[in-house]
Every structure is written in structure tokens, then in C-alpha cells.
Write a structure and sequence with these properties.
Length: 353
């Protein structure tokens, strides 16, 4: 069931997103209407879904017998339901019925990462016209770019080249070697294939659609011809950049166990989430430097000290560690994010550990 962005804008951290980014998130949300007693998740489980309560009441039952009730119209109702991994409680619908919004956690983290990166003056591609950014959103959802790690997003957008194209211009030709990956920023194109017969149009491409990745991913020749039907602008990424940016970014990842040792040796901890996320739960001793203000805050950091960056899943911290490393710091991204560190702490606290 589709949902209007208006219904999401009071939820945290969705309320921090630019309107156009919230619209993208809304299109990826699944809305569930569920009845009394329905179980959303169990304590101890790990999954990839973030849940928000839009109406009704959900109860959380902890393994030690404690319980808390969450009403959609309460302050707690603004936050994701028990989003820390592994799940700390079992969540069931307490009211007669409830409306739940669910979304892939990593996709949400990537959109938050993008939102914060675009607030930096160094991000040159953001169009003042919200519709002009459609190509960026479609790009993040494309088959080829879904695998791009969040830590590579800044480099990805900095390497795109914008070119003007004319109606009737052939951009790629079937049988040629692959050289670029393309995204249509403005204009429209047709895709045709000949095979062993006469060329036939098999698809049409409009603003936000991408093409050219198949030959680059498979290191083979173009499997179709793409011709502009309408003049416009293309964003293109060279073959070498495309190959490099599909790989893990040049970031040093660190496990929770090694991070604990590093911190005991004097490393700093940087929480790159938003302030309300930090206030709700954070690692002891961490300082809050939201990703979108990291360059501004970095002047207060000591370059003789190393730093461990963390967020909820590792998406934003990968981007943060890359930025800090580029600024001359020794920085690490915490693998698994806050949830992994909490799990490590619970393991240490367990009897006999």
C-alpha cells in the first residue's frame, strides 16, 4: 500500500530529510495493516527491516519480563520500533489493530547518508529544482549502483561528467566496447537491438534512467544501441571509475573487539548520526559529529589521535571515515555499527565471558 510523505515527516530521523529525499523514502515504504497479537519480531533476532508505528499500540516484552507499551501518538512513537540489533524485545500489536510502516534499513541509511552529503558545500551536483535531482535518486536504486558502498557515494558523484547531447545522437552502439556508464539527467532515448535481424526498439529511457552498466559489469561488448530521441544532458562515469567505485571504499574497517582495544589505548569515538539518534542511545565516551557537519567539526579533532567512527549500520560511518582519512586523520569505520558494539558489550558482560 503506497503512503504519502506527509505521514512520515514527523518520524525520526525522517523529519531531518529534505522534502525530495523524504518523497523517495516514501516510495520504498511498505504499509502493513495488522491485528491484535501479531508479532513483528522476537528478542534476539537480527533482520534488515526498520519499523515505524503509524497508528495503534505495540507492546515490547523483554527477556527479563519487563514490558513497555508504545503508542503511535506518543513521543516514543516517533522513533523506529526497537531498531537496535539484535532485537532487545519481542514486539506485538497490543491494540485491536495497528498500521506499520516498514522499510529496508540499509536503504534508509543510504538515503540519510546522501541527504547529509548533499548539505556539504563540496557537493556540487545538487539541483535547486527538486525534480532536477531525480537522476540521483533513480541512480541509487538502479541495478548497477545498489551495490555501491555508502562510503563511495561522495567520490561517485564527484567523478560524474555532464555532457550535452542532441536529438538523434547515438550514445552507445550494439557490439561496441563499453567505455562509460550513463544516467539521463534531461531528455529521452530509445534502446534498440538488432541481434541477427533488423533493429527493433525494445525500451525507452527518460530522466533518471541509466544505461551502459551491463557491458562494464560483464566486461563484454554493448548489447544494445541507445539513441537520443530528445536533446538533453547525460551524466557519465568512465569505465575505470565505475569499476573502482563498485568495490569497497578505501576505508579501514574495524571490528567491535579491536575497536574496544583501540579506545582503551586512547582512540576517540565519533558518532556520526543525527543528534536525536545520539541522545537516544550512544557508545560511552563518544562525541556527536553528524556526517553533514563533519568537515566543520573536524577542526576540533587531534591529528595525533586515531578515531573510530560509527552509525547504526556502518553506512554513514564508512563515508565519515573516508572523509576524515582524506583530511589527514587516522580513522576507522566500526563494522556492523552501533548494534555490533552493543552485542560485543553484552558478550563481555555475559557470565563466564
Amino acid at each position: 500500500m503506497p503512503i504519502e510523505a506527509e505521514r512520515l515527516k514527523h518520524l525520526y530521523p525522517l523529519d531531518s530529510l529534505r522534502p525530495e529525499h523524504l518523497e523517495v523514502v516514501a516510495r520504498e515504504v511498505d504499509v502493513l495493516e495488522i491485528g491484535h497479537g501479531h508479532e513483528l519480531f522476537k528478542a534476539g533476532e537480527e533482520d534488515e527491516t526498520t519499523y515505524y508505528l503509524l497508528s495503534g499500540i505495540v507492546t515490547g516484552e523483554y527477556p527479563d519480563g519487563k514490558r513497555k507499551d508504545i503508542a503511535a501518538d506518543s513521543l516514543q512513537g516517533r522513533y523506529p520500533i526497537g531498531d537496535l540489533m539484535p532485537r532487545r524485545f519481542t514486539a506485538r500489536v497490543l491494540s485491536l489493530a495497528a498500521t506499520i510502516a516498514s522499510i529496508d534499513r540499509r536503504f534508509l541509511e543510504r538515503m540519510i547518508t546522501l541527504d547529509q552529503l548533499t548539505r556539504s558545500p563540496s557537493f556540487k551536483l545538487l539541483d535547486k529544482n527538486a525534480d532536477g535531482n531525480r537522476w540521483i535518486f533513480r541512480l541509487l536504486q538502479s541495478h548497477a549502483l545498489r551495490r555501491v558502498p555508502a562510503g563511495n557515494l561522495e567520490r561517485l558523484f564527484s567523478r560524474f561528467e555532464e555532457i550535452e547531447v542532441a536529438a538523434g545522437q547515438t550514445i552507445v552502439r550494439e557490439g561496441d566496447d563499453g567505455d562509460y556508464f550513463y544516467v539521463i539527467k534531461d531528455g529521452a532515448a530509445s534502446v534498440s537491438q538488432a541481434g541477427d535481424g533488423d533493429p527493433a526498439v525494445v525500451a525507452y529511457l527518460v530522466r533518471g534512467d541509466s544505461f551502459g552498466e551491463d557491458a562494464l559489469l560483464s566486461n563484454s561488448v554493448r548489447n544494445a544501441t541507445v539513441t537520443m530521441m530528445k536533446a538533453g544532458r547525460l551524466m557519465r562515469l568512465g569505465k575505470s571509475d565505475f569499476g573502482e567505485l563498485l568495490k569497497q571504499p578505501n576505508v579501514d574497517w574495524i571490528t567491535p573487539g579491536k575497536a574496544s582495544i583501540l579506545v582503551r589505548q586512547g582512540a576517540g569515538i565519533v558518532d556520526v548520526r543525527l543528534p536525536e539518534e545520539f541522545e537516544e542511545r550512544s557508545i560511552r565516551g563518544a562525541v556527536n559529529m553528524p556526517l553533514y557537519r563533519l568537515r566543520e567539526y573536524a577542526v576540533d579533532l587531534d591529528k595525533d589521535q586515531s578515531y573510530v567512527c560509527y552509525c547504526n549500520t556502518g553506512e554513514r560511518s564508512a563515508a565519515a571515515a573516508f572523509i576524515l582519512t582524506k583530511l589527514g586523520f587516522e580513522a576507522y569505520a566500526l563494522a556492523g555499527g552501533l548494534s555490533a558494539m552493543v552485542k560485543q558489550m553484552q558478550k563481555k558482560a555475559a557470565p563466564g565471558a
